[in-house]
Design a protein that fits this description.
1179 residues, mainly beta, Jelly Rolls, Immunoglobulin-like, 8-stranded antiparallel sheet, 7-stranded antiparallel sheet, 37% strand
Length: 1179
């Protein structure tokens, strides 16, 4: 009885007055006054009718009262109010040197809102140790994909964005740093060639490796040209500038950096192929049970697709094959398989195997077939070739392999069938045994960094005399060489341009004295001759000189200037002589003018004539897994370096880095798990997913000996919902370096399994615990036992929330069987014995009624609304023994929707807690609800009689889903739409692929349950925790062979474009916003619609519904135009569904919708899109 029962007596007061008046007139002779004035008779009739009306009203309530009494008889009770919960974060006082304790039961209040008189009090449920350790770093390490993300800003609240807990995007760095000073730090622009001795040059040349250099502010990209030959990998970087010093792992130098731009995860196994295909058939996802070369007639080709990183260059790939039916070859000729890979339009050969040999032709990839052409279980292995790109094949993109049966007449006498096929890979990383650096300076002239004549400095930016204005024997010109050009074994080019050339402004150089000069350089112990290609040159003309410094050309100091210096001395002849007198033959003297015409230089510039000899690099640094390792490379000692190594970890993990260790006290973290997106929990996405499959998560901490297991109580249920994680601070938690940061690390590692929906987090909050909108009353003395039947007592406060604990002091301890029964019902503390004073306190058990209670059962009932507690009468339920104040109860009171508070409002500590500065919460308090409405109780009661706690029919699944959680607002059970057991006759031994009945058989025994939670979100999406609870609840109550799927709904977005004319121009600016808000409320799936009860599954609003909703808005005159757009949010069926959603009723009747689309629509709810409202003043 879910509706209003029909009245037993439909008469109202007027009818009773009329009927009584007629009877009085007929039988008493009384007549109402003719003038209509009231008299005594009418007054008596009115009084009688009123009392009769009261009797009729109560009579009409009898069916309802009887119905409610029946519901009470079968144990149906209104659900009490639920208290809101909120995670409260406590903050230590600034400068606190010790952790603080927030005891269980600490009360925090929210101020009353407008219209409320009382504050709302929340109470913590457990003791909370507020630790001084601060969470500084949060990193997601996606080891299987060799990626990571630093999520510190999001997890600590600096950025309000959710993040994936176990998937990441940034590549883990794999880098090689090379330093070679002074070659790389020399001045000038240069081309640098690195020669890396390696047996793996081809592999390095095929890998995507980028080169950069440090320019003083950031790493700059360098253009690289690479080749591999003769056991070396050669890399030429063009146009590099002088590299400034930069510190890498404690070594300051000019650095080049090579970075591997591809993932290099740890080798693994057990990966499924992306797709498989048999011959010309369409690819399918699973290889399980596949006949690779056909089931009855032998085919020729079997294809499979693998993904990254299995197909990465250099990976050693393994195909692990388990056969459900091994193939058998004919006795005469073995079957041969040619394995190849797709490269563009060609299939390139990997190798060949046969039923007689693992390797008939291994090719360049080392192919080995341990299955002997699929005649036994085993592995097929090969090394990935250099040219295996991802290609599109039969509509599927991937790295494709092909197994081809050689057409030489050989055939299987029994074709193989796969039980399973999985992929694995390992890495054999390349090694380097030598690094040499060669530079070639770009021919750009470089001015000398310094010059002296004897001891006098010269300004080489002006014309100058290198040997002075009056050169004499042994005058010396000192010339500095640019450091950028000085390299061991390298020649130098010097360009000389004279001012006193043939057409110069000063007299030409006087060469009559046959001047001769010598070139010298400092070698660390003295000046040694330097070789010049023109040994007779003496600065008498412009020239370009090739100069070879002596071995050991070293730096020295000239005129307090240190550098690589040349010394150029005048050692013979002259550039003229001084003025003097000449004695004539007659004895007279004649003045002879001075003839000095020394060289005057306009410009001097240095350059390099070509590449220098290679120089061994003295040091390199490898960077893998965020660890920098310095390698000092001694050219006289054999060495080997592995530049790029795979990820050390195999499992994805979430790392939490704290600034200091915890005390060995309980620690509480709160994980703010983000609800999944609505599309993620729709049936399309969760198809084939078992929500009850376990996901193995393990908490660990970093100790002196590596990662250790952390015994943690994690209430997030594998990150399916928000909750706390509690553990005792490890005594040996130590700071360790990970991700380049020294922290005290915890991590949550994904040990095995996979998530149906990728979990996302928003914040990770230390020092946070749950608080409930309730007040705990501890050991309230309920009263004294009287040993009378049916004793009733009441609590001091009400309503009483679930979870109360009632104990009675009894004169003696219960018998052993009784105590065992009590312990089973109430827990280990059901019987408590105290010594001083000696008392026995026994916990009694709550029941809904006494119908099943025996005379010795310690039972009681409770009216949670009033707090009244009733005990048995000795026949149905034990009477309470006589005693003074021997009945005590501990309970909580509170609850209700008023506890649902916005974030940051529950902040007032009701009593001071030592060392606690403040308290707050970063998400709203939620979950509070009032008493269950009577209408819902009336509707819920009969369902228990119908389903009897077993899920058989679709309605049973819906009813039980409502019972599984108070969060469930709407349920739809979707049974198979095509399966009718009375209409099918199927032979399991002879399946008929393509037959409608055979295809429908796959749906038999399946049921989908769509769950929608209470939420004000535009699309209320269930979390994985709720879906899992509902599924587990239903699986415990349905048949063991039922194929059950519990998902969220599908979604149809409804967008309205309307033109609205306001009723008055004065409110035109307000009407548009009002209409948009009305449409958003009207289209809400749970609270929308004309009656505010939401929209049924599969129900779409008609245009007339929307017209009525808009025209009812205050200020709307009329709606001249309205367009409705409906978009189905489906990955696979979107286009087909949009065509169906656009049909009229007549079109739907003429062309029925396919069963596939029908099932989708049966699971779908509408929600509000972004509407476009145009307000016009006339239309």
């Amino acid at each position: 009885m879910t509706g209003q029962s029909p009245p037993i007596d439909p008469r109202d007061r007027a009818a009773l007055v009329a009927q009584t008046t007629a009877l009085a007139t007929r039988y008493s002779g009384w007549q109402p006054p003719a003038d209509g004035r009231p008299d005594g008779g009418q007054a008596l009739i009115g009084v009688f009718a009123r009392f009769a009306e009261l009797v009729v009203q109560r009579l009409n309530q009898v069916p309802e009262r009887d119905y409610l009494a029946f519901l009470n008889l079968i144990g149906t009770q209104p659900s009490p109010p639920l208290p809101a919960r909120v995670p409260l974060t406590f903050r230590l006082a600034e400068g606190s040197r010790t952790d603080a304790l927030v005891p269980a039961g600490t009360q925090v209040a929210a101020d009353p809102r407008d219209g409320e008189d009382d504050e709302v009090v929340f109470e913590t449920g457990t003791d909370l140790v507020v630790t001084r350790s601060r969470l500084l770093t949060v990193v997601v390490d996606d080891a299987p994909h060799d990626t990571y993300d630093d999520r510190s800003a999001e997890a600590t609240g600096d950025q309000d964005e959710p993040f994936a807990a176990f998937t990441a995007e940034l590549p883990v760095p794999h880098q090689l740093f090379v330093a070679c000073d002074p070659v790389l730090t020399a001045e000038g622009t240069k081309d640098v060639t690195l020669i890396l001795a390696t047996p793996d040059g081809t592999l390095l040349d095929g890998w995507p490796i980028s080169w950069t250099y440090w320019d003083g502010t950031r790493w700059q990209s360098a253009e690289a040209d690479t080749t591999s030959q003769d056991g070396a990998w050669t890399v030429t970087l063009t146009g590099l500038p002088q590299l400034p010093p930069y510190e890498v792992n404690g070594t300051s130098a000019g650095w080049l950096r090579a970075q591997l731009d591809m993932p290099l995860p740890h080798g693994t196994s057990g990966l499924p192929p992306d797709a498989v295909a048999i011959g010309s058939r369409a690819p399918q996802d699973s290889a399980d049970g596949v006949f690779p070369f056909g089931q009855t007639d032998q085919g020729r080709f079997f294809y499979l697709s693998v993904g990254e990183p299995v197909a990465a260059l250099g990976a050693d790939v393994r195909l692990a094959i388990t056969l459900a039916r091994p193939g058998v070859a004919g006795p005469a000729t073995p079957v041969r398989l040619v394995w190849s890979y797709k490269d563009g339009d060609e299939w390139r050969r990997l190798g060949e195997s046969s039923t007689a040999a693992e390797t008939a032709d291994a090719g360049d990839t080392g192919l080995r077939d341990g299955t002997l052409a699929m005649t036994r279980d085993g592995e097929i292995s090969f090394r990935v070739p250099a040219d295996w790109p991802a290609e599109l094949f039969q509509g599927r993109s991937g790295h494709w392999l092909r197994a081809e049966i050689v057409q030489d007449g050989a055939a299987y006498t029994r074709l193989p069938q796969l039980a399973s096929l999985t992929l694995g890979f390992d890495w054999d990383p390349p090694t380097v045994t030598g690094i040499e650096v060669r530079t070639e300076t770009v021919p750009e002239p470089v001015a000398p960094p310094g010059a002296f004549t004897n001891g006098t400095p010269l300004d080489v930016t002006k014309d100058f005399h290198p040997f002075g204005e009056q050169p004499r024997f042994n005058d010396t010109f000192y010339l500095a060489c640019p450091e950028s050009l000085v390299r061991p074994g390298a020649d130098l080019t010097l360009d000389v341009t004279l001012t006193n050339g043939p057409d110069g402004p000063v007299p030409p150089v006087n060469t009559d004295g046959d001047p001769r000069i010598v070139w010298e350089a400092w070698d660390g112990s003295g000046w040694r001759p330097a070789t010049v290609d023109d040994p007779d040159y003496a600065f008498t003309a412009d020239a370009t000189l090739l100069l070879t410094p002596p071995d050991g050309f070293a730096r020295t100091e000239v005129g307090d200037v240190e550098g690589h210096w040349l010394r150029i001395r005048l050692i013979g002849g002259d550039y003229g002589v001084a003025a003097g007198y000449t004695r004539n033959s007659d004895g007279s003297y004649e003045l002879v003018d001075a003839t000095f015409a020394p060289p005057v230089v306009t410009t001097l510039s240095w350059s390099s004539p070509g590449p220098a000899a290679p120089v061994p690099a003295p040091v390199c640094v490898t960077h893998n897994d965020f660890r920098l390792t310095t390698h000092h490379l001694d050219p006289g000692t054999p060495w080997s370096v592995t530049p790029f190594t795979p990820h050390l970890e195999q499992d994805s993990a979430l790392y939490l880095g704290f600034d200091q260790p915890f005390d060995t006290r309980p620690v509480t973290l709160y994980l703010q798990v983000e609800p999944p997106e609505p599309e993620d929990v729709a049936a399309d996405r969760l198809a084939g997913t078992d929500l009850t499959d376990p996901v193995g998560l393990v908490w660990e901490y970093g100790g002196p000996d590596g990662w250790q297991s952390l015994a943690a109580v994690d209430e997030t249920a594998t990150l399916s919902g928000r909750g706390t994680v509690r553990f005792v601070g490890p005594a040996d938690l130590t700071a360790r370096e990970h991700f380049g940061q020294s922290r005290c690390w915890l991590r949550l590692r994904l040990r095995h399994g996979s998530f149906p929906v990728t979990p996302r987090l928003r914040r990770i909050l230390p020092n946070t615990t749950w608080a409930t909108q309730a007040v705990t009353v501890t050991d309230e003395i309920l009263g004294s036992g009287t040993a009378e039947a049916g004793q009733r007592l009441s609590t001091a406060q009400s309503p009483v929330l679930a979870g109360q604990r009632l104990v009675v002091r009894e004169p003696e301890r219960p018998t052993a069987p009784e105590e065992a029964e009590l312990t089973n019902a109430e827990g280990a503390d059901a019987v408590t014995v105290t010594e001083d004073p000696e008392e026995v306190w026994v916990r009694w058990h709550e029941v809904t009624d006494f119908h099943r209670s025996g005379p010795l059962d310690r039972h009681y009932t409770i009216d949670r609304r009033t707090g009244e507690i009733s005990f048995g009468d000795g026949r149905a339920g034990r009477v309470v023994p006589r005693g003074q104040s021997n009945i005590r109860v501990t309970y909580r009171t509170g609850g209700g929707a008023e506890g649902n508070r916005d974030a940051g409002t529950v902040v007032t500590l009701k009593s001071a807690v030592p060392s606690i500065d403040s308290v707050t919460h970063h998400e709203p308090a939620s979950g509070g609800s009032a008493w269950e409405p009577l209408d819902r109780v009336r509707a819920r009661g009969p369902r228990s009689l119908r389903h009897r706690d077993r899920a058989v029919t679709a309605q049973d699944f819906e009813d039980l889903a409502y019972e599984s959680s108070a969060e469930v607002a709407r349920v739809r059970a979707v049974p198979p739409s095509r399966y009718d057991p009375f209409d099918l006759w199927l032979d399991p031994a002879a399946p008929q692929p393509g037959d409608a009945h055979t295809e429908a058989e796959a749906d038999a025994g399946g049921v989908g349950v769509v769950v929608v939670p209470y939420s004000g979100d535009p699309r209320p999406a269930p979390g994985l925790g709720l879906l899992r609870r509902v599924e587990e609840y239903l699986r415990a109550r349905c048949g063991p062979t039922t194929a059950l799927r519990v998902t969220g709904p599908e979604w149809i977005e409804v967008t309205v474009a309307a033109t609205v004319v306001p009723s008055s121009p004065d409110i035109a600016g307000l009407v548009g916003g009002r209409v948009e808000q009305t449409l958003e409320r009207f289209l809400h799936p749970l609270t929308g619609g004309a009656d505010g009860t939401g929209w049924a599954f599969g129900r779409k609003p008609h245009r007339s519904d929307l017209y009525a909703a808009i025209e009812a808005v205050d200020g709307v005159g009329h709606v001249p135009a309205l367009t409705v757009t409906q978009v189905a949010h489906s990955d696979d069926l979107g286009d087909r569904l949009e065509e169906v959603l656009g049909r009229s009723l007549a079109q739907l009747a003429a062309e029925p919708v396919s069963p596939e689309l029908t099932r989708w629509l049966e699971r779908a709810l509408v929600f509000s899109g972004r509407h476009r409202i145009t307000v016009t003043l006339g239309a």
